[in-house]
Amino acid sequence: MDELAIRVEHVSKEYRLGAIGGATLKGEIQAKMAKLRHKENPNLKIGEKEHGKNERFLALNDLSFDIKKGETVGIIGRNGAGKSTILKLICRVTAPTKGNIYLNGRITSMLEVGTGFHPELTGRENVYLNGAILGMNKAEIDRKFDEIVEFSEVGQFIDTPVKRYSSGMKVKLAFAVASHLDSEIMIMDEVLAVGDVAFQNKCIDRMKKVAEEEGRTILYVSHNMATVKSLCNRCIVLSHGQVAFEGETEEAIAVYMQDENLDNTTFFDTSSVKRHPKCSQKHLLQNLHMFESESCILEYGDKFPFRITWKSENADKLLMKMVINGIDATPVGVIFGGELKAEKGINSAEFNFNTSYLVPGKYTVDVILYDEDKAGNMMFHDRTTALRFTVEHGEKSLKLKHWFKNWGNAVLPCIEQIIGDDKNV
Amino acid sequence: MTEQKWTTVVKANNGLIDMDLKGLKNCKDLIFLFVRRTFVAKYKQTVLGPAWAVIQPFFTTVVYSVFFGNIAGLGASGVPNFIFYLSGTIVWTLFANCLTETSHTFTGNSAILGKVYFPRLVMPISTAISQFIGFFIQFAFMLCFMVYYLVTDAGLKPNILILMFPVVLIQLAVLGMGFGMIISSLTTKYRDLTMVVGFGVSLWSYCSPVAYDMFSRSQLAPGSIFYNIYMLNPVTPAINLFRYGFLGCGEVDWLFYGISWITTVIVAVIGALMFSKSEKTFMDTV
């Protein structure tokens, strides 16, 4: 039997909905007095017997799992599935309502980077403070200080108050402190979301190294499937406070994505989706409708027509392209549409989508409205995820029956064989 | 097959007494760093810096001396008003600050406490310790005036009980911390108490011999019923002892000083128990 690092045993966590605690002192005293005199609690709604039977919410419902020593486990799930709650319980920030959690070894929690950073203190002082909050003593931090500063890349600002740091620098310093702790178990909640790409990769490499070479256990929660994939060797999918799936990262991500695409719709309303500030929004996509399809689950090789509707501020011309993304949000490819004419107000255009370039799987599509001037400079008007669909195996996908994930998700057009005289050219 | 070992068990229902005292011992550095953080952060970007610690009690003392001492005539018999009020003010301030600052432990630090675990008692302990920094600045200030009054022979009679002052200070800090922890535990659910703390503390100061000399009041003559009730206020005998040691004014009633200590211990124990009871789930209600 491998040694375990964490055992979660029948853990439930209950929250009261509505006004948490509900109570002012007065309300609670009134309730107590009423009970003593066998009268109804004056604060209850008429007809209600007791506070809260139906106001309770189980964030975690009889959750159990084991994590072995040295594993890197990802926890994924929709918002509200209980990911953060279980991390909080493991970090001992709050206690479970029922059940026990067993831990083997010291824990570092990185539910947030830079916990306890004080803006007025210098970087150096904050390294010591943050390290101590996370459980190191002064001697340990002394020993690792140079390593931390080097990793954080903020060496020359180490004696400057943290309030003068950019947010990226703060994150770098905080991550450096946390990742240099001598703890056996590390708990991370999407901490890599900030910081530039180079630093994110550096963090992931660091975590991998920590897991592989030093045999530490890592528990990682994220919505970023790419980092989950590159970091974790096992995943737990949570859904409604219970384990929906436990196993290989790839499979787990597939299960999670399925969970997310439950709504089988052919009409995608994007009018109220928040846009990136870089988009000019002069042309704004309102919706996308697969108007002849009955569902967004398609057979390989199917073509489906769809209509995009957008709102324009002025009569104009514009271009459209679509970026197809795979299940883990990695781009598969781009499709260009032709030039579109727009009148002031609502416009629409219809296109035909050919699925025979995509291997069976789940995809999301970002629709981009843009324009180019003569010099080729792009002006973004709008970009939003406007379409989700699933391609399933069918008659035409025989060649793809034994598809491997390292083939990629795009099926390129057949290569032309050169026949006859052309051979010598 | 190796036997599975567990270093920590997180349980749902904890008993009444479940304090992480073992973990607390390893937190000396953390306590020190929190104290330092509080101090540094408090006076950063102020021109006068730690001098503010002196300015506040100085002006309070001046106002007390003029209005309560001279105009209302509640002042000290035998010693100059200024040193009488100054000594009372700084001791009271230590107690009051310990109380109010620790009463904000949960609500004020929820950002840290909600993200990372360390023995929660670190927070009130370091808060109380950091109050001593300000106090010792004020204390040094008071000693300067004492030297001045001794040189000018203004009637001060420091005596052997001066050596009791560390005991008095520790007692007041523990007492303040105890009340602070009780309030802090309750405020996680009932915010009403945050309203009470502010004016409650200032009302309490009028029930203690801070702004007047209790021994010059005939209503508070030792032995009277009112005296007996008055002395049950645990802060009163402590302030009296402090003043008696340094200034030689007033009296020390050892019976009530003993009761004051008993109260302190009870309050501190109740505070610590309530605190460790609510620290487990306060994040859900705060």
Walk me through the structure.
- The complex is a heterodimer of chains A (425) and B (286).
- Chain A folds into two domains: 208 residues, P-loop containing nucleotide triphosphate hydrolases (Rossmann fold, 3-Layer(aba) Sandwich), CATH 3.40.50; 132 residues, Distorted Sandwich (Coagulation Factor XIII, Chain A, domain 1).
- Chain A contains eight helices and 18 strands.
- The model of chain A has no long low-confidence stretch (mean pLDDT 81).
- In chain A, strand 6, helix 6 and strand 7 form a beta-alpha-beta unit.
- Chain A starts with a strand and ends in a 33-residue tail after the last strand.
- Chain A is of the alpha/beta class.
- Chain B is mostly helical and 286 residues long.
- Chain B has one domain.
- Chain B is built from 13 helices and one strand, in the order βααααααααααααα.
- The longest helix of chain B is centred in the middle third of the chain and has 30 residues.
- Chain B is globular and about 75 Å long.
- The chains are: A alpha/beta (425), B mainly alpha (286).
- The interface between A and B is large, with 50 and 44 residues.
- Strand 4 of chain A pairs antiparallel with strand 1 of chain B.
Task: Please tally the β strands of chain B and state the result.
Answer: 1
E-strand count of chain A: 18
The CATH superfamily of the largest domain in chain A turns out to be P-loop containing nucleotide triphosphate hydrolases
As a percent range, the share of strand residues of chain A is 25-35%
* Helical run tally of chain B: 13
Largest sheet of chain B: none
The oligomerization state is heterodimer
Which bin fits the share of residues in helices of chain B?
A: 55-70%
Mean pLDDT of chain A: 81
Class of the largest domain in chain A, according to the CATH hierarchy?
A: Alpha Beta
Number of helices in the DSSP assignment of chain A = 8
End-to-end separation of chain A: 66 Å
Radius of gyration of chain B: 21 Å
Helix content of chain A: 10-25%
How many domains make up the coordinates of chain A? 2
The overall average pLDDT of chain B, rounded, is 87
Biggest interface pair, counts: A-B, 50 and 44 residues
